[in-house]
Amino acid sequence: MTSASANPSKLAILFRDIATLGGKDASFMANVILHHHQRPMTKLRGLLKLLRAGHRIRTASFSLNVLVIDDQRTEWSRLEEA
Fold this sequence. Notes:
Layout: H1 3-6, H2 8-36, H3 40-52, E1 57-60, E2 63-69, E3 72-74, H4 78-81
Antiparallel strand pairs: 1-2, 2-3
Helix pairs in contact: 2-3
């Protein structure tokens, strides 16, 4: 069981807020994080924090392994630092 599945109500709130602020790209990223990354709740919180700060965040069109923040490629761990 992942930490994300431990509290579905917190997860639902995070997904709603991410979708509201970031649209379809951010919702897609949230699903990628949830299903393919370690510590998904930490990364989801970081994603939301960056979106609230006005950053544009997406995955690269050629690879889910590449995170793009404000048109700059970066590591997924950047979400944990936000």
